[in-house]
UniProtKB/TrEMBL annotation:
<keyword id="KW-1003">Cell membrane</keyword>
<dbReference type="Pfam" id="PF01032">
    <property type="entry name" value="FecCD"/>
</dbReference>
<feature type="transmembrane region" description="Helical">
    <location>
        <begin position="308"/>
        <end position="328"/>
    </location>
</feature>
<feature type="transmembrane region" description="Helical">
    <location>
        <begin position="226"/>
        <end position="246"/>
    </location>
</feature>
<feature type="transmembrane region" description="Helical">
    <location>
        <begin position="145"/>
        <end position="165"/>
    </location>
</feature>
<keyword id="KW-1133">Transmembrane helix</keyword>
<feature type="transmembrane region" description="Helical">
    <location>
        <begin position="119"/>
        <end position="139"/>
    </location>
</feature>
<dbReference type="GO" id="GO:0033214">
    <property type="term" value="P:siderophore-iron import into cell"/>
</dbReference>
<keyword id="KW-0812">Transmembrane</keyword>
<dbReference type="InterPro" id="IPR037294">
    <property type="entry name" value="ABC_BtuC-like"/>
</dbReference>
<comment type="similarity">
    <text>Belongs to the binding-protein-dependent transport system permease family. FecCD subfamily.</text>
</comment>
<feature type="transmembrane region" description="Helical">
    <location>
        <begin position="177"/>
        <end position="197"/>
    </location>
</feature>
<protein>
    <submittedName>
        <fullName>ABC transporter permease</fullName>
    </submittedName>
</protein>
<feature type="transmembrane region" description="Helical">
    <location>
        <begin position="27"/>
        <end position="48"/>
    </location>
</feature>
<feature type="transmembrane region" description="Helical">
    <location>
        <begin position="87"/>
        <end position="107"/>
    </location>
</feature>
<dbReference type="GO" id="GO:0022857">
    <property type="term" value="F:transmembrane transporter activity"/>
</dbReference>
<feature type="transmembrane region" description="Helical">
    <location>
        <begin position="335"/>
        <end position="356"/>
    </location>
</feature>
Amino acid sequence: MNPFRMSRASAETAAHVSVAPPRLRRFLVSIAGLSLTLLAAIVFASSVGPVHIPFERTIAIILGKLHIYVGSDFSERELLIVSQIRLPRVLCGALIGAALGISGAAMQGVFRNPLVEPGYIGVSSGAALGAVCALFFGWTQIGRWALPASAFTGAVIAVAVILAVWRGSRSRSIATLLLLGIGINALLSALINIMVASSNNDQELRSIIFWLQGGLEARTWEHVQLVAVPILAGCLIMISFGRHLNIMLLGDDQAAASGVNVRSTRYILLALASLMTGSAVAISGIIGFVGLVVPHIIRLATGPDHRFLLPASALGGAIFLVLADVVSRMVLQPVTLQVGVVCACIGAPLFIALILRSRQGGKAQ
């Protein structure tokens, strides 16, 4: 199946056909497989590092955090490394990856465009501008949460401005909203470049560039608690709109005739994607390609049905980012790469391969 294009027949099938038992079993098996893979990735990422910890001890420590105690002989040092250093970082990566993956899948359905990702409506650029302002003007001296708070505020303001301009324009088409997002992204990027060029000292400049590249360094349980509720709640609510997205693929008129409130559904999905992406970017910086590539890869396995695609994209995004973070920590030891850089190095070739695959599929047809 071509992951970049959905025919009308495929859309109608996804929108109207009930889930047959064999298809439901295949979906449940896929979700179970992705869930087990995610758990394995979390254990693996919590075990490897400059200090290697055996998997069985890592599992015992993680179960201990869940108040499930098993007999395993691990040291206080291993407990500290896993429970206070690695596990919060890994869980932040899983939550951020899930947010970006499911938001990308939802927005590709909303815009009916497979090349859309969450950053296209100004979320990432708005968060970046807010964070850069916090670093540039010294707001980070107020407290440790000044940076993520500024980033989240910037994301909310950027999306609000784009939606306000879109509602005030003559054209209310979804293509206009996408173009507005591209234009606002360019403006915000220019403002960021001005502040980078006007940076007062090298330390400030390094901090700005470091954040813009995206990373999970020094994440704590407080960061996990900060993003867990908006991301997990957003994922659950977004998954409930799977059938609506399937019907909207047929066009606004057909969706309205089928009983879907297109405007409300679109606003809700955009708000959820903005909330989750803004929460993620606020603690990690800009991480690209997860919301663009992961839904395409998942679509190859599960098909275009958003009832399946959304939860699978969340799990796939979590797996992708957890493993990318492992690569960022291990590939050039003792040097640690930014996970955003690793995602770009992995995601760009995958995206090119998907484009080539789609062109070959089109010629074959």
